[in-house]
Amino acid sequence: MSVVLGYDESPGAERALRVALEVAAAFGEPLVLVYGAAAPGGGGEEYRAHQEAVRQAGRSALARAVAAADEAGVPSTVEVVDEKPAQALLDAAERHGGRVIIVGSWGDSPLRGALLGSTPHKLLHLSRVPVLCVPTEEES
């Protein structure tokens, strides 16, 4: 089994990373760090360049999360996949025997999430494994 984390360096993802490390350490399971890198658009050279830039941003973001996992003594695996974030997380949970999918939130209202299709909202409706949605910390 594993703990699957959607990570993109956002404030919500930073707090979710801390929670995911605690959960993975508590269960003695590896952390699967996932970045859904589906680029909007159709095709052509401009699309491929944009898609590669999105993938590189994902690799860069996940490198920081891997360093945090290493520091916490939690083994980790990285996946940068050409899918939208929710689908990338669902697929990773299936491939890695996910115990839980952990994501951060931006503090959107439930209505806004339903209308705009937030990743946490999609996961709560589609996932077959538990989803832990970690709120962003309030500024002091």
Question: Can you offer a commentary on this structure?
Answer:
The structure is a single chain. With 140 residues, this protein is α/β, with parallel strands linked by helices. 51% of the residues lie in helices and 20% in strands. It contains five helices and five strands. The protein has a five-stranded parallel sheet, sandwiched between helices. Helix 3 crosses helix 5. The protein is globular.
Map the helices and strands.
Blueprint: E1 2-6, H1 11-27, E2 31-36, H2 44-72, E3 76-81, H3 85-95, E4 98-104, H4 110-116, H5 119-126, E5 131-134
Helix pairs in contact: 3-5
Task: Looking at this protein, list some descriptive labels.
140 residues; 5 helices
What is the C-alpha radius of gyration, as a whole number of Å?
A: 15 Å
Structural class: alpha/beta
How far apart the termini lie comes to 36 Å
Total beta strand runs: 5
- Major β-sheet annotation: 5 strands, parallel
By DSSP (H or I, 4+ residues per run), the number of helices equals 5
Helix content: 40-55%
- What is the arithmetic mean of pLDDT? 87
Oligomer: single chain
**pLDDT under 50 segments (min length 5)?**
none
Structure described in brief:
With 140 residues, the protein is an alpha/beta fold. It has 5 helices and 5 strands; from the N terminus they run βαβαβαβααβ. Strand 2 (31-36), helix 2 (44-72) and strand 3 (76-81) form a beta-alpha-beta unit.
